[in-house]
Structure formats: structure tokens, C-alpha cells
Design a protein that fits this description.
Blueprint lengths: L9 H20 L10 E6 H10 L2 E5 L7 H18 L7 H13 L11 E6 L5 H7 L4 E6 L3 E4 L3 E4 L1 E2 L5 E6 L4 H23 L5 H19 L12 E7 L2 E4 L2 E4 L6 E5 L2 E10 L6 E6 L5 H14 L6 E3 L9
Parallel strand pairs: 14-15
Antiparallel strand pairs: 1-4, 2-3, 2-13, 3-9, 4-14, 5-6, 7-13, 8-9, 10-11, 12-13
């Protein structure tokens, strides 16, 4: 019949239904419970501030390049021993459960080769933090208040107010610095997944469903890896806006769908990849600007006000309350 849709192959139709049923069961078992964040502050230097205002965008840097490999290694050091322990646990001995655990051994094989790259913009819950001003030294620091960063969608819950050509998945996550909390959260989710796959397969070997569970579990794993940090960074009270570039599996390796969206910059002699993140609305949700300690605060404030108004922003510009002499 002209114009009619082709009839799906029975195996294809079965695969579609199997994925839909498994995904629906996953969402019911693991609902997204993200809450709206407080006002958040992004610290930057003078060049970064002007770049944000002029381009109406943010640069999300590749996680792992922002400080050192500890940005990612922390999660691997927490997860790997738990995976190995549960492989020996008497409760999780079915072939499907072993399949999930062996998949996790591969997932956490090396922090230098993560299964999914993440690009992040860092935020802080405090906008006048001495340690952050010190980090910018003589460059002159600024904290840009963003509020709201998320919006409520009736179907999707809390969604971010940003987008990127690099990838469609962008999330906002609060960083967990407590190693005990990190272990508890990871172990609890993993045990829940192992019991979940047992119920779905009724304890019988089912590689198709197990493979789908691994695929669905991967996204939680990736988000968790990029949402935990070493306790040494706790003062930052960081939230991360994380962009995941679209990838495809080609000849045994993950490749980016849009390599042209990845840019590079030089920082402290290192090449740092980044992607551009833009607001869904015409302007960034900038609520205020805090100017770090500066010998000429009035001139700095006036210059920032002019830069903001030239691009259509109307928000207060405030001086830091940190005395200049203590910021050195």
C-alpha cells in the first residue's frame, strides 16, 4: 500500500518491545529525584567574565583536566573494591548478576580511559569565598551568580536551562565529598540493580535483558563518577553543570558524533578540551556579579556594569567583602 510504513521484522519488533519494557521497569525502580538547586556562583577571571558576557555562553572543560586525575580517580578507587567484593557475595551468584559485575570491572578498569567523557562548568554555593579569590591572584576574580539554573518540566522534572551542540544530555549535580557517603550510595545502588536484574529475569539466564540493564545502568554510573570528589576539595561546595558529548560505538571504540564541537585552550601549559554551553533563552540567567578584592573597586564595578548593559543584562554588581590584604 503506497505511503504505508514497513512492517518491522519480528526480531526487530521484539527487541523494541524488550527495550521499552526494560526501560519502563528501570524508571519505575530508579526514579529521578533531583531537586531544584540554590543560587549558584561561577568564579572566573576578568577575561573569562568578558567572554561569558560577550558570547552569552559558558565553557565546559573536560573533567580530569580541571585539576588533576584525582577528579575522576576518586570514584574508581571507591567503586572497584565494592564490585570485587560483591562478586564473591553469596546473594549475587546468578549468571545475569555476574554479568553486571564483570561489566563494572571493565567500566572501572582505568580512570584515564573513562567510558564516557564529561565536560563541566563548576559552580559554588558561596559567591564571596576567600579561597577562590586567592586562586585568581593578581588576575582579578569575579563570581557570576546564576539563578535559576534549572526549570521544572512536568514530564522530565528538573531540567537545566542550557544546551550544547556537543551533546543533548546536560545535567546539574551536587558534588559529594564524603567518602563514607560515596561508598554507601554506590553500594546501595549496585545491590539494588543486582536484585532488579534478578527479578526481571526471574533468576534465569537472559543475556538480552542483562545487556539492556548494563546499558541503562551506565548513565547512572557516568553521572556518579563525575559527581564525587576527594574530601580535600570540600570547601568548594561545588555543583557541576555536566555536558556529555554524543558518542557512537564504532569498531570496538567510542567515537564522538560531533568532533567539530570540541575546542581546545591552553592553561598552565596544558591543552584543555572544552565545549560551549549556551542558554535555552536569549540571555544567560545571570542574577548578579561579585567583584573580587581589587585596589580600584569603584572603577571595576563601573566597567562591569557597562559590559553587562551593552549586552542586554540588567543586574547588580557588588564588591567583595573580603579585605584586599587578606586575599594575597
Amino acid at each position: 500500500m503506497a505511503g504505508s510504513s514497513p512492517v518491522p521484522h519480528p526480531k526487530t519488533q521484539f527487541a523494541v518491545h524488550l527495550y521499552a519494557d526494560t526501560a519502563q521497569a528501570w524508571v519505575s525502580e530508579f526514579p529521578d529525584s533531583q531537586q531544584a538547586p540554590p543560587p549558584l556562583y561561577h568564579y572566573t577571571n576578568a577575561a573569562g567574565l568578558i567572554g561569558i558576557i560577550e558570547s552569552r555562553s559558558l565553557w565546559a572543560s573536560a573533567i580530569g583536566h580541571s585539576n588533576d586525575l584525582r577528579e575522576i580517580a576518586c570514584a574508581y578507587e571507591i567503586a572497584a573494591p565494592i564490585v570485587n567484593e560483591l562478586l564473591e557475595h553469596s546473594e549475587f551468584q546468578t549468571s545475569n548478576q555476574k554479568n553486571v559485575l564483570r561489566f563494572l570491572q571493565t567500566f572501572f578498569a582505568s580512570p584515564e580511559r573513562p567510558m564516557q567523557d564529561g565536560y563541566a562548568v563548576s559552580f559554588c554555593v558561596r559567591g564571596d569565598l576567600l579561597s577562590q579569590w586567592r586562586a585568581y591572584g593578581d588576575q582579578g576574580g569575579f563570581s557570576v551568580e546564576f539563578d535559576p539554573v534549572t526549570q521544572f518540566d512536568p514530564l522530565q522534572g528538573q531540567t537545566v536551562r542550557f544546551r550544547s551542540n556537543a551533546g543533548h544530555k546536560i545535567i546539574l549535580r551536587q558534588i559529594d565529598y564524603d567518602p563514607d557517603s560515596q561508598r554507601i550510595a554506590f553500594r546501595a545502588r549496585l545491590e539494588q540493580v543486582l536484585r532488579f536484574v534478578y527479578r526481571l529475569t526471574e533468576g534465569q539466564e537472559n543475556p538480552e535483558i542483562t545487556s539492556l540493564v548494563n546499558s541503562l545502568f551506565t548513565w547512572w554510573l557516568v553521572e556518579w563518577v563525575y559527581s564525587v570528589k576527594d574530601a580535600a576539595f570540600e570547601e568548594e561546595q561545588e555543583w557541576r553543570l555536566i555536558c556529555f558529548p554524543n558518542i557512537n560505538w564504532v569498531e570496538g571504540a567510542f567515537v564522538y558524533t560531533h568532533y567539530d564541537t570540541v575546542k581546545s585552550r591552553i592553561r598552565n601549559g596544558e591543552v584543555v578540551p572544552y565545549v560551549v554551553v549556551e542558554p535555552i533563552q536569549p540571555l544567560l540567567p545571570i542574577k548578579s556579579i561579585n567583584c573580587g578584592p581589587h585596589p580600584h573597586p569603584s572603577l571595576t564595578r563601573r566597567a562591569v556594569e557597562l559590559a553587562l548593559k551593552s549586552k542586554g543584562y540588567c543586574c547588580p554588581v557588588n564588591p567583595s567583602r573580603v579585605p584586599l590584604r587578606t586575599s594575597r
